[in-house]
Design brief:
By secondary structure, this protein is α/β, with parallel strands linked by helices. The protein folds into two domains: 3-36 and 189-220; 58-171, no CATH class. The protein contains three helices and eight strands. It has helices spanning 3-44, 152-158, 191-220; strands spanning 48-49, 59-66, 72-79, 82-92, 99-107, 120-129, 146-147, 167-171. It has a five-stranded mixed barrel. A hairpin with a 2-residue loop joins strand 3 (72-79) and strand 4 (82-92). Helix 1 (3-44) runs antiparallel to helix 3. The protein is elongated. The two termini are 18 Å apart. The relative contact order is 0.18.
Length: 221
């Protein structure tokens, strides 16, 4: 078999693979761009009532009473020079199971006042699905109500709740303690860079092969 043909049999599959990866990233770019546009529209729009199952990447509102005596802490987060965590509180809803609300960040050091509103509350936020703990995730301390993975069933059981919603609600707001989230989550959109990378590698492969083939043809002439 001639060297040129052997090289072509190696280059063509690699080229097709690079083009396929680039095309897949083009589709992912379109999907992610549309998703981010829908998130921006949801953030600007009034909240929708929280329904089961909830819609992802939307701003929702739920009504109920906070069970402050069943608070828990989630994760570890440093803000400035202060170590803190997220305050998880069950929201007791009428006609629906309690939903765990991430009311926001609080410092681990006691002393600063943390608001604990009583009575019927309207919570505006976004739906957070449960986590699947990884191999290297920190171990939860259920007895101390310290959690490092957001597993609603496990947290609810540790708080003495017979049933909770299989998702959580991250509260939106401004200032104070707990310090709530201010925006809906915006997943990163790096797909354009991947498109350029895969198509660029494909173009480079074609260029290298073309230069090599031209040199081989000149040598055999």
């Amino acid at each position: 078999m001639k060297p040129l043909l052997r090289a072509a049999l190696l280059v063509v599959p690699a080229l097709l693979l690079l083009l396929a990866l680039g095309t897949w990233q083009v589709r992912r770019l379109a999907w992610k761009t549309d998703l981010l546009a829908r998130i921006d529209a949801a953030e600007a729009a009034p909240p929708r009532p929280l329904v089961d199952p909830p819609e992802p990447f939307t701003k929702v509102a739920a009504a109920g009473r906070f069970e402050h005596d069943r608070e828990a802490l989630l994760g570890v987060e440093v803000r400035g020079t202060t170590l803190g965590a997220h305050l998880i509180v069950p929201l007791e809803r009428q006609g629906a199971p309690p939903v765990l609300v991430d009311r926001g960040w609080v410092p681990l050091e006691r002393g600063l006042p943390v608001s604990r509103p009583a009575g019927e509350q309207r919570v505006v936020g976004w739906v957070r699905p449960g986590d699947t703990p990884g191999w290297f995730a920190a171990r939860d301390d259920a007895a101390a109500r310290r959690f490092y993975s957001f597993d609603p069933a496990a947290i609810g059981a540790a708080l003495g709740l017979p049933a909770v919603a299989p998702y959580g609600l991250v509260a939106l707001g401004e200032g104070g303690l707990p310090a709530p989230a201010r925006h809906l989550p915006h997943p990163p959109n790096n797909h354009l860079g991947y498109v350029i990378t895969w198509y660029g590698l494909a173009a480079a492969l074609v260029g290298v092969f073309a230069a090599w083939a031209r040199r081989r043809l000149k040598e055999s002439a």
